[in-house]
Amino acid sequence: MRRALLSLVPLLGLLLVAVAAAQDKDKPAEKKAGEARKEANAPPRFNVDQFLKDYDRNGDGFLQREEVPPYLRDRFDDLDTNKDGKLSRDELEKAGGSLEPRRRPSDFVYLLIELSDCDDDCHGEVQQIYDALRKLDRNKDGKIDAEELKAGRQQLLEARVDAILTELDTNKDGRVSREEARGRVKRDFDQLDANKDGFIDRDELLRAATERINTKKER
After folding, report:
1. Is 112 exposed, middle or buried (0-12, 13-18, 19+ CB in 10 A)?
2. Domain residues of the chain, as ranges?
Protein backbone atom coordinates (compact mmCIF):
# COMPACT_ATOMS: atom_id res chain seq x y z
CA MET A 1 0.00 0.00 0.00
CA ARG A 2 2.75 2.46 0.92
CA ARG A 3 4.61 1.79 -2.33
CA ALA A 4 1.42 2.36 -4.29
CA LEU A 5 0.71 5.66 -2.58
CA LEU A 6 4.27 6.94 -2.86
CA SER A 7 4.38 6.10 -6.55
CA LEU A 8 1.45 8.46 -7.15
CA VAL A 9 3.26 11.52 -5.74
CA PRO A 10 5.80 12.09 -8.53
CA LEU A 11 3.17 11.20 -11.15
CA LEU A 12 0.78 13.81 -9.78
CA GLY A 13 3.56 16.39 -9.75
CA LEU A 14 4.41 15.70 -13.38
CA LEU A 15 0.76 15.99 -14.42
CA LEU A 16 0.39 19.36 -12.68
CA VAL A 17 3.56 20.62 -14.36
CA ALA A 18 2.26 19.52 -17.77
CA VAL A 19 -1.14 21.17 -17.29
CA ALA A 20 0.37 24.47 -16.14
CA ALA A 21 2.80 24.50 -19.06
CA ALA A 22 0.01 23.90 -21.58
CA GLN A 23 -2.08 26.73 -20.17
CA ASP A 24 0.65 29.36 -20.55
CA LYS A 25 2.47 28.90 -23.85
CA ASP A 26 3.90 32.43 -23.95
CA LYS A 27 6.41 31.82 -21.14
CA PRO A 28 9.77 30.09 -21.67
CA ALA A 29 9.42 26.33 -21.14
CA GLU A 30 11.92 26.18 -18.29
CA LYS A 31 10.26 29.05 -16.43
CA LYS A 32 6.79 27.57 -16.91
CA ALA A 33 7.87 24.18 -15.57
CA GLY A 34 9.58 25.79 -12.57
CA GLU A 35 6.51 27.82 -11.67
CA ALA A 36 4.26 24.78 -12.07
CA ARG A 37 6.45 22.71 -9.75
CA LYS A 38 6.42 25.50 -7.19
CA GLU A 39 2.63 25.74 -7.35
CA ALA A 40 2.23 21.97 -7.14
CA ASN A 41 4.35 21.85 -3.96
CA ALA A 42 2.62 24.81 -2.31
CA PRO A 43 -0.06 24.10 0.32
CA PRO A 44 -3.63 24.55 -0.95
CA ARG A 45 -5.07 28.02 -0.32
CA PHE A 46 -8.17 28.35 1.85
CA ASN A 47 -11.09 29.55 -0.28
CA VAL A 48 -12.92 32.15 1.82
CA ASP A 49 -15.53 32.82 -0.86
CA GLN A 50 -16.43 29.14 -1.05
CA PHE A 51 -16.52 28.92 2.75
CA LEU A 52 -19.01 31.81 2.89
CA LYS A 53 -21.08 30.26 0.12
CA ASP A 54 -21.21 26.93 1.94
CA TYR A 55 -22.23 28.26 5.38
CA ASP A 56 -23.95 31.65 4.90
CA ARG A 57 -27.47 30.25 5.05
CA ASN A 58 -29.30 33.61 5.17
CA GLY A 59 -27.17 35.10 2.38
CA ASP A 60 -26.28 38.32 4.23
CA GLY A 61 -22.55 38.01 3.51
CA PHE A 62 -21.70 37.26 7.16
CA LEU A 63 -21.58 34.16 9.31
CA GLN A 64 -23.57 34.10 12.52
CA ARG A 65 -22.50 31.84 15.38
CA GLU A 66 -25.17 29.29 14.51
CA GLU A 67 -24.05 29.26 10.86
CA VAL A 68 -20.42 28.30 11.35
CA PRO A 69 -19.56 24.59 11.43
CA PRO A 70 -19.58 23.00 14.90
CA TYR A 71 -15.79 22.68 15.12
CA LEU A 72 -15.45 26.49 14.94
CA ARG A 73 -18.11 27.51 17.41
CA ASP A 74 -15.83 27.39 20.43
CA ARG A 75 -13.46 29.75 18.57
CA PHE A 76 -16.13 32.12 17.31
CA ASP A 77 -15.35 34.89 19.81
CA ASP A 78 -11.65 34.85 18.89
CA LEU A 79 -12.43 35.02 15.17
CA ASP A 80 -14.94 37.84 15.70
CA THR A 81 -12.26 40.49 16.18
CA ASN A 82 -14.60 43.51 16.11
CA LYS A 83 -17.05 41.79 18.50
CA ASP A 84 -20.16 42.49 16.44
CA GLY A 85 -21.49 38.96 16.82
CA LYS A 86 -20.80 37.87 13.24
CA LEU A 87 -17.86 36.99 11.04
CA SER A 88 -17.18 39.19 8.05
CA ARG A 89 -15.26 38.23 4.93
CA ASP A 90 -12.30 40.26 6.19
CA GLU A 91 -12.27 38.38 9.51
CA LEU A 92 -12.48 35.07 7.68
CA GLU A 93 -9.67 36.13 5.36
CA LYS A 94 -7.43 36.94 8.31
CA ALA A 95 -8.18 33.57 9.92
CA GLY A 96 -7.31 31.82 6.65
CA GLY A 97 -6.36 28.15 6.86
CA SER A 98 -7.09 28.03 10.59
CA LEU A 99 -10.77 27.75 9.63
CA GLU A 100 -10.21 24.26 8.30
CA PRO A 101 -10.88 21.33 10.65
CA ARG A 102 -7.89 20.70 12.89
CA ARG A 103 -6.17 17.40 12.33
CA ARG A 104 -4.88 15.27 15.17
CA PRO A 105 -2.02 12.73 14.99
CA SER A 106 -4.52 9.94 15.64
CA ASP A 107 -6.33 10.79 12.38
CA PHE A 108 -3.72 8.81 10.47
CA VAL A 109 -5.31 5.59 11.81
CA TYR A 110 -8.63 6.40 10.15
CA LEU A 111 -6.82 7.41 6.97
CA LEU A 112 -4.97 4.12 6.96
CA ILE A 113 -8.22 2.19 7.36
CA GLU A 114 -9.81 4.12 4.48
CA LEU A 115 -6.85 3.31 2.22
CA SER A 116 -6.58 -0.33 3.22
CA ASP A 117 -8.52 -1.72 0.24
CA CYS A 118 -5.65 -1.91 -2.26
CA ASP A 119 -3.53 -5.03 -1.81
CA ASP A 120 -3.87 -8.32 0.05
CA ASP A 121 -1.27 -7.22 2.61
CA CYS A 122 -3.00 -3.94 3.54
CA HIS A 123 -4.56 -5.48 6.62
CA GLY A 124 -1.03 -6.16 7.87
CA GLU A 125 -0.36 -2.42 8.17
CA VAL A 126 -3.38 -1.97 10.43
CA GLN A 127 -2.44 -5.11 12.37
CA GLN A 128 1.03 -3.69 13.10
CA ILE A 129 -0.50 -0.58 14.62
CA TYR A 130 -2.91 -2.66 16.70
CA ASP A 131 -0.09 -4.89 17.97
CA ALA A 132 2.10 -1.90 18.86
CA LEU A 133 -0.67 -0.15 20.77
CA ARG A 134 -1.61 -3.35 22.59
CA LYS A 135 1.98 -3.73 23.80
CA LEU A 136 1.87 -0.23 25.28
CA ASP A 137 -1.01 -1.29 27.55
CA ARG A 138 1.22 -3.00 30.11
CA ASN A 139 -1.37 -3.36 32.86
CA LYS A 140 -3.94 -4.73 30.37
CA ASP A 141 -6.73 -2.39 31.43
CA GLY A 142 -7.67 -1.55 27.84
CA LYS A 143 -6.25 1.97 28.09
CA ILE A 144 -2.91 3.68 27.42
CA ASP A 145 -1.93 6.13 30.14
CA ALA A 146 0.84 8.74 30.07
CA GLU A 147 3.36 6.55 31.91
CA GLU A 148 2.80 3.61 29.56
CA LEU A 149 3.27 5.88 26.56
CA LYS A 150 6.46 7.28 28.09
CA ALA A 151 7.77 3.77 28.73
CA GLY A 152 7.00 2.74 25.16
CA ARG A 153 8.79 5.80 23.80
CA GLN A 154 11.83 5.02 25.90
CA GLN A 155 11.82 1.41 24.73
CA LEU A 156 11.82 2.49 21.08
CA LEU A 157 14.66 4.92 21.73
CA GLU A 158 16.78 2.26 23.41
CA ALA A 159 16.07 -0.22 20.61
CA ARG A 160 17.34 2.28 18.03
CA VAL A 161 20.48 2.96 20.06
CA ASP A 162 21.12 -0.77 20.42
CA ALA A 163 20.72 -1.18 16.65
CA ILE A 164 23.31 1.53 16.01
CA LEU A 165 25.71 -0.03 18.48
CA THR A 166 25.26 -3.51 16.99
CA GLU A 167 25.91 -2.20 13.48
CA LEU A 168 29.02 -0.15 14.29
CA ASP A 169 30.66 -2.19 17.05
CA THR A 170 32.49 -4.59 14.74
CA ASN A 171 34.83 -6.00 17.41
CA LYS A 172 31.92 -6.49 19.84
CA ASP A 173 33.53 -4.82 22.83
CA GLY A 174 30.35 -2.88 23.65
CA ARG A 175 31.53 0.49 22.36
CA VAL A 176 32.32 2.32 19.12
CA SER A 177 35.85 3.49 18.34
CA ARG A 178 36.68 6.34 16.01
CA GLU A 179 37.74 3.79 13.38
CA GLU A 180 34.44 1.90 13.68
CA ALA A 181 32.26 5.00 13.54
CA ARG A 182 30.33 5.72 10.36
CA GLY A 183 27.95 8.39 9.10
CA ARG A 184 26.63 10.89 11.61
CA VAL A 185 28.26 9.08 14.51
CA LYS A 186 31.64 9.61 12.84
CA ARG A 187 30.91 13.26 12.05
CA ASP A 188 29.77 14.02 15.61
CA PHE A 189 32.23 11.66 17.31
CA ASP A 190 33.91 14.27 19.53
CA GLN A 191 30.55 15.60 20.70
CA LEU A 192 29.15 12.13 21.39
CA ASP A 193 32.26 11.02 23.26
CA ALA A 194 31.27 12.84 26.45
CA ASN A 195 34.01 11.41 28.71
CA LYS A 196 36.69 11.88 26.02
CA ASP A 197 38.05 8.35 26.30
CA GLY A 198 38.17 7.85 22.54
CA PHE A 199 35.11 5.59 22.47
CA ILE A 200 31.33 5.99 22.37
CA ASP A 201 29.42 3.60 24.60
CA ARG A 202 25.71 2.84 24.88
CA ASP A 203 25.08 5.37 27.64
CA GLU A 204 26.65 8.16 25.59
CA LEU A 205 24.58 7.26 22.54
CA LEU A 206 21.41 7.08 24.60
CA ARG A 207 22.14 10.39 26.31
CA ALA A 208 22.72 12.11 22.96
CA ALA A 209 19.54 10.66 21.47
CA THR A 210 17.50 11.76 24.50
CA GLU A 211 18.95 15.29 24.39
CA ARG A 212 18.11 15.54 20.72
CA ILE A 213 14.46 14.66 21.36
CA ASN A 214 14.23 17.15 24.24
CA THR A 215 15.72 19.88 22.06
CA LYS A 216 13.06 19.30 19.41
CA LYS A 217 10.32 19.57 22.05
CA GLU A 218 11.61 22.98 23.18
CA ARG A 219 11.52 24.46 19.66
Report:
1. middle
2. 2-41, 48-99, 107-136, 146-218
Provide the whole-model pTM. 0.50
C-beta separation of 176 from 200 below 8 A: yes
What pLDDT, in 10s, does the model give residues 126-164? 888 889 899 999 999 999 999 999 999 999 999 999 999
Fold match between 48-99 and 146-218? Answer: yes
User: Does 48-99 carry CATH code 1.10.238.10?
Assistant: yes
DSSP alpha helix (H) spans, the chain: 2-23, 29-41, 48-55, 76-79, 89-95, 107-114, 122-136, 146-168, 183-187, 189-192, 202-218
CATH superfamily of 146-218: EF-hand (1.10.238.10)
**Taken in order 16, 1, 134, 208, is the CA torsion positive or negative?**
negative
The stretches in the chain having pLDDT less than 50 are 1-23, 25-26, 38-43
pLDDT digits (tens, 9 = 90+) for 50-61: 989 999 999 999
